[in-house]
Write a structure and sequence with these properties.
Strand content: 15-25%
Structural class: alpha/beta
Largest sheet: 7 strands, parallel
Distance between the termini: 34 Å
Number of helices: 13
CATH class of one domain: Alpha Beta
CATH topology of one domain: Rossmann fold
Radius of gyration: 19 Å
Oligomer: single chain
Number of strands: 12
Length: about 325
């Protein structure tokens, strides 16, 4: 059934893949995004009759209230955030305003506006560092970074708002990989693939750390799936979503095998000790959803994008959140938002 869906952060890495999928499924989509990276990621669907793009900052609570009150949305998919740990540490006040205060206000305003379903982009990083063989949804949340802490607190806020008229679910995604029109080259597989394609060697920091990963096409499929999932199956639930768990070194070796078996892998020390094995059993058993793409497919997709000119300047800061934010401080500090 067609729905009117508000996608915050809809011009970002995930949104640029998700929004066209929702439109193709017959949904009306309103994107609410500060457009820090511009509108180019949505160029392919910009003229679609079911799409509305609103430039806005979720720190502007009055604007958020107006958009929700006037939109008569069936569902909200909340992707907007200062994404990843390094970006969140650039300006803790900004991160607090966007990832926590903005998120809380959006949730409350959505409920007040009569939104029936709220899909919250949490993160597998909420678990912190675990010694257990499999990290399941029942384990205690022990976030160790600012980004992860606000994601965990956002979940608790959502759980406190749920009732028979307001359904909420949290998506604890593994690290995402693969091509998007709003490409990011600051994610593990994407970084290592870029090294393999442009440097003639793959640089690995550490290597023994276990990392769960998910193809961007599978993660965006899951968000689309949740729009129509039975309410009783998802209400108040958090779901891990991951395709494969592998060490960083194993990922580098997989990428080398796909790109060029002769490539050297250079190993350097790291202070990043995050390591965990994410279980995605609950989402398969409860919802019957399973990823369809391999991590190797993500590498192949990236290789194709580099080969056909979709990544014209690999060193461009626009592909790396921290570098782009540092280059545009007036924007994210409020000058243009």
């Amino acid at each position: 059934m067609s729905k009117h869906v508000l996608v915050t952060g809809g011009a970002g890495y995930l949104g640029a893949i998700l929004v066209p999928k929702l439109l193709a499924r017959g949904h009306r989509v309103t994107v609410y995004d500060c457009l820090l990276f511009g509108e180019a990621p949505l160029r392919a669907v910009r003229s679609a009759p079911g799409l509305t793009v609103i430039r806005g900052d979720i720190r502007d609570h009055d604007h958020v209230d107006r958009v929700l009150a006037e939109g008569h949305f069936d569902s909200v998919i909340h992707l907007a955030a200062i994404s990843n740990d390094p970006s969140s540490e650039l300006d803790p006040e900004l991160t607090h305003g966007v990832n926590l205060l903005g998120t809380e206000h959006l949730m409350r305003s959505a409920k007040d506006a009569g939104v029936a379903r709220f899909l919250y982009a949490s993160s597998a990083s909420v678990y912190g560092i675990k010694e257990t063989a499999d990290v399941t949804e029942e384990l205690e949340l022990e976030p160790i970074t600012l980004y992860a802490r606000y994601k965990a607190e956002g979940e608790q806020i959502l759980w406190g708002l749920l009732d028979e008229d307001f359904c909420g679910v949290a998506v604890r995604a593994a690290t995402v990989c693969g091509w998007s029109p709003r490409l990011r080259l600051d994610l593990t597989i994407n970084i290592l693939t870029s090294h393999a394609l442009t440097r003639g060697a793959i640089r690995v920091f550490g290597g023994s750390q276990m990392r769960p990963n998910i193809h961007i096409e599978d993660l965006t499929d899951f968000y689309a799936f949740l729009l129509d999932a039975p309410r009783e199956a998802i209400q108040g639930q958090a779901f891990n979503i991951s395709a494969e768990n592998a060490s960083v070194m194993a990922l580098a070796e997989m990428i080398r095998a796909e790109i060029d078996p002769a490539l050297p892998i250079d190993v350097e020390p790291t202070d990043d000790i995050r390591s965990y094995h994410l279980s995605a059993g609950k989402v398969r058993e409860r919802l019957g959803f399973a990823p369809k793409r391999s991590l190797r497919q993500a590498v192949a997709d990236l290789r194709a994008a580099f080969a056909d000119g979709r990544v014209p300047e690999v060193g461009d800061p626009i592909y790396r959140n921290v570098a782009w934010m540092k280059q545009h401080p007036d924007f994210w500090r409020g000058g243009d938002a």
